[in-house]
Write a structure and sequence with these properties.
This protein is of the alpha+beta class. 31% of the residues lie in helices and 32% in strands. The chain folds into 2 domains: 66 residues, no CATH class; 29 residues. The protein is built from 3 helices and 6 strands; from the N terminus they run E-E-E-E-E-H-E-H-H. The longest helix has 13 residues.
Length: 111
């Protein structure tokens, strides 16, 4: 098992094994990070990793996983006015009025 040297923000340089480290890569932009729990202070540490670093860690036996950002991040942004406190109160009133709520739901299913 390979020995990996990493840096904890509190403890400085620490030595880890491949079992102590994992690598994650974002599927949207291929940005990588590696993470480990410091063996001295037990704090979780996450650091950015260049593609070359990801390749070296994975080649040495470090666990590799990918993740995808939530789909909501790809949704188009609303160009309208920001949601105000008055809008929230109006929405609250709508939810408490069963007749108006049924009308609003019906209009959604018709369109």
């Amino acid at each position: 098992m390979a020995t990996i040297r990493a840096s904890c923000p509190d403890c400085g340089d620490v030595e880890l094994t491949t079992a102590d480290v994992s690598v994650r890569v974002c599927t949207a932009d291929n940005q990588g990070t590696y993470l480990f729990r410091c063996p001295v202070c037990t704090m979780s540490v996450v650091k950015p990793a260049e593609p070359r670093t990801v390749d070296l860690l994975v080649a040495s036996g470090v666990a590799y996983s990918t993740w995808s950002p939530p789909l909501e991040l790809r949704e188009p942004k609303n160009d309208g006015e920001p949601f105000s406190h008055d809008d929230l109160l109006d929405f609250h009133d709508l939810l408490n009025d069963e007749g108006r709520l049924a009308e609003a739901l019906d209009s959604l299913t018709r369109s």
